[in-house]
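Before the break, one more example. Copy the sequence into your notebook; we will annotate it together after we see the structure.
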Amino acid sequence: MKKILLIYFLSFNAISELTLEITQGTEDPYRVAIIKFSGADKATADIQKVVFDNLLRTGEFTIFNNEDLLSIPQIEEDIVFNDFRILDIDFLVMGKVEDDGLNIAVEYQVFDISKAKKIRTSTVYGIPNKNRQLAHYVSDGIYQEITGIPGIASTKLLYVTEDNDFKLLISDADGSNEQVLLESTEPIISPSWSPDSKKVAYVSFETGIAKVYIQDIASGNRQVAVENSSQISSPAWSPDGKFLSLTMYQDGNAEIYILNLKNKNLTRLTNHYAIDTESTWSPKGSKIMFTSGRSGSPQLYELDLKKFNSRPKRITFDGNYNAKGSYLPNNEGIVFVHRADTNFQIALKYFNENFVRPLTNAQMDESPSISPNGNVIVYAIKDDGMGLLSGVTLSGAKFRLPASKGAVREPAWSGYLR
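Here is what the structure looks like once it is written out:
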């Protein structure tokens, strides 16, 4: 008998928590000094450690702490910029934690050493007993000020693990704070975040065939997306959250449909004897990209939803396999699974270029998901037969997120949570 267990988001800590490991940094990292935050209680030390680790784990920073410095300023007026120039430090971060037992806040400052000036002062207010999330927001502010790119420490990851059963899990972007959304003896695949990151859609085989479910994260409530006797898979949310694109086998063949979530109406987009699947929306929702075998091998195609009777346009030509595509958030290109010879790699293709950029070099990389800032791709790999998550930034840093128990696969990155 099939067993399905629904678990509310805040009710259970999983034992297979991911541990993020940087395997390669960027060639020219930012050199940043972080002065020990002021504040007497344990929360101060905990928050600073999370901030320190968040920046270090991007692979884009070399971090200096108090023991590495020539001088340790406590206030802005104490800063001797030349002491930091001698060490080739680019930026200085100072902060203080204020905690009155009811409210907690972090005030931090960022200084540009080469310009000898303060470039940011911010105060981030937290929620009691949510110090990690507070620290993630502080990290994101520091990251954005230094790199010019919004930070993603405060975002979430969604993924599936398989051990004795299948679990759909959610965690912080660094793999901590893991929670179980769903546990089942039957497979769970294709998790996808709603644009506001308050709901997820996924495919469960708990009834014996593939069905798409939509689940509210805060309450745990869920429902079947489409009441239908056909196999349904590969859900993807439209940018406005009003529609899902789906793969349906309604007439015995895999075709792309759009589901109106308000009235449950279905609109068929493709009609071909080949398999059409793995649809995804462009950032503005005007186009849909999908994988199709209509050219004889899996390739990526695109439909313009603004054009009447639009015909699918093939958009990948290099290699004998291109699938599971996603648009970069700025719509400058796409990320996908690419095979030129025998290896399956994660690849990037900018629309203004006529060549593919391989980002990884393993034998079996799959299921890429792009961070909301467009700078990081997380994907599933196999290492010694074990499934785990890995990641690469567009600047060249690489990391892994192995679980302490079970295989990990099918990652999906949330949007910004503020």
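Residues 131-147 form the longest helix (17 residues). The first strand starts at residue 4 and ends at 6. Try to locate both features in your own notes.
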